[in-house]
Design brief:
Blueprint: E1 4-8, H1 10-19, H2 40-52, E2 57-59, E3 71-74, E4 83-90, E5 98-107, E6 110-122, E7 125-132, E8 141-147, E9 153-161, E10 164-171, H3 173-177, E11 182-190, E12 199-206, E13 211-220, E14 223-233, E15 242-247, E16 253-260, E17 267-275, E18 278-281, E19 291-292, E20 309-315, E21 322-331, E22 335-345, E23 350-353, E24 362-369, E25 372-380, E26 386-396, E27 413-418, E28 422-428, H4 431-436, E29 448-449
Antiparallel strand pairs: 1-6, 2-4, 3-4, 4-5, 5-6, 7-8, 8-9, 9-10, 11-12, 12-13, 13-14, 15-16, 16-17, 17-18, 17-19, 20-21, 21-22, 22-23, 23-29, 24-25, 25-26, 26-28, 27-28
Protein name: VCBS repeat-containing protein
Signal peptide: 1-26
Organism: Peptacetobacter hominis
Length: 453
């Protein structure tokens, strides 16, 4: 007999919202992390589900918390009403752990779940989860990549049929590679070409030969069909590899793969698009613009809805407290071209948007005068002679020193920005040289901003 459990939320939600809540978050210097897909209502629903779950079963986050959470609202059967998909882990002492999910249906002021709407697989963790109509039948499938108890990655594909979860297929590394020694597996799903059908990118890793295979696939009758593959030498594995699907130019979508390089311990970026069901690789593995010392996420730096590739030109190798980063964008007629250069200082929370006339020419030296932090910006002439063009002073708001002590009265000084901790002022060292790069006391403020909020 099917077990139906109703989780009533109205009274609990009312009490919760009347009582209020507060939260705090810490900022990281390298990047601002996206919060997981998890809000107050889901917290209440999570609490309700937990109360009726079996012993030793807990709700868990898949690893891709930017995309999914413990609790997810998804219209699986496209009937206009969201189902709730809750990911879980069952851990019983002396037995293999299991991971999976349950599906709940909305029913007025409650959510009901069925015993046949639950799936558990023997495994330690959920590495990836998503909801896509990969077989184009009008209904979304649940995609779950999990690490089994033998440390082997597997990908399960599930569908909701009425009140029952059905396993449509199970993908193991050898399904994508034909090589049983490949134990690592990863998946990414999205629209790459223009056929309006989801493309599946499956990565496998051969730990013996240090080769990573990127496969273009689709799902037919519950089986993974490989259409094309590209092989990369010497990546360190899949755990640090990031795969993104999006606009790689104004005309094309594609795949961007950031992978750790075992040769020099840095990161390498590869970009591909799909044409006639085949990968077209547009990057070279030895292009220095695609190789960087540590991982920096791809971004859309100029807000034109096209992926930009970051490349670290120089940085502090010990604590990553500052960096010059170039950004490259691809087009079919020009290839990769630099569209931006930014100096980031994460310790003192500012960045300099380098004017294009100064691309590749600036250097920065940091010093201290009493409590002030002094940044001297230099350019090198054609003869290789350094010229100080301006100095940025970060003056602490708590400073007891008279402002006049840190100002050079013979040179123009401009306050360019303020934060909670510092006032930032620029002193023009060589106005004549600065003018050559279209900068002056009137517009220099425009190139400064916070490194993070």
């Amino acid at each position: 007999m099917k077990r139906i459990v109703g989780i009533f939320l109205l009274g609990i939600l009312s009490a919760f919202f009347l009582s209020g809540c507060s939260s705090s978050s810490a900022k990281t210097p390298e990047k601002l992390l996206t919060k997981p897909n998890y809000d107050e209502e889901k917290a209440i629903l999570s609490s309700g589900i937990t109360k009726v779950m079996f012993q030793n079963v807990t709700l868990i986050f898949p690893d891709n918390t930017k995309d999914v959470g413990k609790i997810n609202y998804v219209d699986l059967d496209e009937d206009g009403v969201n189902e709730v998909v809750a990911f879980q882990k069952k851990d019983i002492t002396g037995k293999d752990t299991e991971v999976g999910f349950m599906v709940l249906r909305e029913n007025g002021e409650s959510y009901n779940f069925l015993e046949s709407g639950e799936t558990l697989e023997k495994g330690k963790k959920i590495e990836y989860a998503g909801f896509y109509d990969i077989d184009s039948d009008g209904n979304k499938e649940i995609i779950m990549q999990f690490k089994d108890n033998n440390n082997l990655s597997k990908i399960g594909i599930y569908s909701l049929n009425g009140n029952e979860i059905k396993t449509e297929g199970m993908i193991e590394p050898e399904d994508a590679s034909g090589k049983p020694n490949e134990k690592s597996l990863s998946i990414k799903i999205g629209y790459i070409d223009d056929d309006n059908i989801y493309d599946i990118v499956v990565l496998t890793y051969d730990s013996e030969n240090k080769k990573m295979t990127v496969n273009l696939a689709d799902m037919t009758d519950g089986e993974l069909k490989i259409k094309d593959s590209v092989v990369y030498d010497n990546p360190r594995g899949l755990s640090e590899t990031r795969v993104s699907i999006g606009n790689i130019s104004k005309e094309k979508k594609g795949v961007v793969i950031d992978m750790p390089n075992d040769t020099d311990q840095g990161m390498m970026t590869s970009v591909l698009y799909v044409e006639n069901d085949k990968f077209v690789k547009i990057t070279s593995d030895d292009d220095p613009r695609m190789i960087t010392s540590y991982y920096i996420p791809i971004t859309d730096i100029n807000n034109d809805n096209v992926i930009d590739i970051p490349c670290i030109v120089s940085s502090s190798t010990v604590d990553k407290s500052y960096a010059f980063i170039d950004y490259y964008q691809w087009s079919e007629d020009r290839g990769f071209s630099r569209i931006n250069e930014i100096y980031y200082n994460y310790s003192y929370n500012f960045r300099v948007n380098v004017p294009k006339e100064l691309y590749g020419l600036l250097s920065v030296e940091q010093n201290y005068i009493n409590e002030d932090i002094i940044f001297t910006f230099r350019v090198y002439s054609d003869m290789g002679i350094p010229e100080d063009i301006f100095t940025l002073t970060a003056k602490p708001k708590t400073s007891k020193i008279d402002d006049n002590q840190s100002l050079n009265k013979e040179k123009a000084t401009v306050i360019v920005m303020e934060t909670e901790d510092y006032t930032y002022q620029v002193t023009i060292n060589n106005a004549e040289i600065l003018e050559q790069y279209n900068l002056n006391t009137k517009n220099i403020k425009e190139i400064f901003a916070r490194a993070y909020e």
